[in-house]
Amino acid sequence: MKRNPQEEIEEIIEEASYVNAPVCTVEKVAAPPDQRSLFFSRSSPLIAVCWLILLVIMGLRIYFGIVLESKITNLTADVQNLTTRNQQLETQNQQLETNWNKLYVSRAQWSIDAYCPKDKGRQCAACQNGWLLRDSNCYMYHNAAPPDQKTWEEARQDCRGRGSDLVVVQSQEEKVALNEYSRGSSGTAGYWFGLRAEGGRWKWIDGSNLTESYWTPQPPPPATDGQCGMSVQNYNWIPVSCADRKQWICVMKALSV
Fold first, then answer.
1. Do 156 and 166 contact (CB within 8 A), yes or no?
2. Where along the chain do its domains lie?
3. Quick one: 132-253 is in which CATH superfamily?
4. How far apart are CA 117 and CA 97, in angstroms?
């Protein structure tokens, strides 16, 4: 169908208008920030703190591990030392027990020989040779010359080394026996026996207090520490310095035969 010239002109104008129309443009919009970069930028301080805590924990574990290992090593060494010491003590105990058994046998043999001498066909006596029998006791009077006399403590050690002790007066018979064998009547001569001053009181070596009035001089001498009783004939006893050198009397129970 043939178009008229007017229509063709209008179509050409319309096409030209379309071609020359302004191009549609998009305004430049800032791109949103990278989400990963934003995450790391915000979490960096937290991560640093976590790493710091982790490093502290690891450091503490290493430190306490070293300390614990050192303590375990020291404890192991202590246990080993204690084990060694225990073995040494067991060995010493065995040696002491062996020595004690030998000493016991030797002492028993000595006692048998002392009370029942071989030269008398093992006829046993109530007291050893050199001891005097009085009632149920055996007494030994050490009439030593001045160079060989002893202090009170030395005298007691001598008695104990003989299986006896200094005399303790517990009866009238013992008092008579002690006084009867004593010599001298003053502080220049006499015998040590088992009485001394302790804590302001006169005490026997068995720990009992002096209570018998018949044995105590009247008035009773003051109990001054450092003084001991010395037996003298006709005077019962007098106090003198324990450091003085005197004769002494030992006593032991008599053997029942």
1. yes
2. 56-124, 132-253
3. Mannose-Binding Protein A, subunit A (3.10.100.10)
4. 28
DSSP readout, 171-188? SHHHHHHHHHH---SSTT
- The Cα 212–Cα 169 span in angstroms is 9
Q: What are phi and psi of 198, to 5 degrees?
A: -140, 125
Beta bridge partners of 150: 246
- 3-class SS of residue 233: coil
Separation of alpha carbons 13 and 7, rounded Å:
10
Token pair of 56, please?
């502290």
Query: Rounded CA gap, 218 and 241, in Å?
Result: 20
- The SS3 call for residue 5 is helix
Q: What is the pTM of this model?
A: 0.54
Overall size of the chain counted in residues: 257
> Residue 151: which residues within 8 A CB-CB, separation 6 or more?
242, 243, 244, 245, 246
pLDDT (tens digit, 9 = 90+) per residue, 88-103?
888 887 787 776 565 5
- Find all residues with CB under 8 Å of 252, minimum gap 6, and list them: 131, 137, 138, 162, 163, 164, 165
Convert the pLDDT of each residue in 151-182 to its tens digit. 999 999 999 998 899 998 888 778 877 777 66
Would you say 231 and 191 are in contact if contact means Cβ atoms under 8 Å apart? yes
